[in-house]
Amino acid sequence: MIPPIARRFVAGESVPVALEHARARNGDGVAVILNLLGEHYDDPAAARADTDAYLALLADIADSGLDACVSVKPSQIGLDVSDELFEEHYREIVARAHELDAFVWCDMEDADTTDATLDAFESIAAEYPWSVGQCIQSNLKRTREDLDRLRDVPGKIRLVKGAYEEPASIAYTEKSRVDRAYREDLRFLFEHRDRGVAVGSHDPAMIALADRLARERGTDYEVQMLMGVRDEAQRDLAAQGVDVAQYAPYGTKWLSYFYRRVRERRQNLAFALRAVVGQ
């Protein structure tokens, strides 16, 4: 059983429970992005198993009529085996989503995976336009060039600040500098895209900036937040007419999920604790 502190951030261990969580959030006007917990598989069989699980989950979502989609991790569906296996599985999942009029997000992991992830996204989005979206991290110094490269790709972009602790040679490490990069990247997206912008942030200032930019530019956008973090704000934004999606992990690997997040970056533990006490 999932302990209470983890249950706040994980939508159960099984698909039926995760779908019920999505149904409850839909009742609040909030869409849900379901992510099966699992990552860093060096066994092709494990990558294949989770790929099959996502294919089945997409069918379950389509049958349920829920306002929900899925988000996959590159290392979960084959990237730690090979770039080719990752792209093969990624393409298969998006192809199924395209058939079902569903949607697939792809998370971004540490900086070593960025090139392979973006190469696959660009190729797959060209084949299955607007059935796929990609996460981009503003703490990486390369991100502005990546956004420029992807400005006309027919897929959504989820902009986040970045949760991985990267070396200063390739990433901004001071919070104020990351915040500045995020604001600049957000302005770039709203200036150069008329759709498909996802603001992955819990920061009220960034959400307010996105709202202002959307009004100025007429760009469609959505706000994405984690399950268990500012849940009341998610409902309030949805009530105001903002498109809101909650990222909700589920599955049996919740313990390794929390351990890895804390190990990757010390600030993640403080972030989780603040969420628990409602700050």
UniProtKB/TrEMBL annotation:
InterPro entries: FAD-linked_oxidoreductase-like (IPR029041), PRODH_bac_arc (IPR008219), Proline_DH_dom (IPR002872), Proline_oxidase (IPR015659). The keyword Nucleotide-binding applies. It holds the Pfam family Pro_dh. GO terms for biological process: L-proline catabolic process to L-glutamate. Its cofactor is FAD. Its EC number is 1.5.5.2. It is an enzyme of class 1 (oxidoreductase). Residues 19-271 form the Proline dehydrogenase domain. Signal peptide: none annotated. Keywords: FAD, Flavoprotein, Nucleotide-binding, Oxidoreductase, Proline metabolism. Pathway: Amino-acid degradation; L-proline degradation into L-glutamate; L-glutamate from L-proline: step 1/2. This is proline dehydrogenase. It catalyses: L-proline + a quinone = (S)-1-pyrroline-5-carboxylate + a quinol + H(+). One of its GO terms (molecular function) is nucleotide binding.
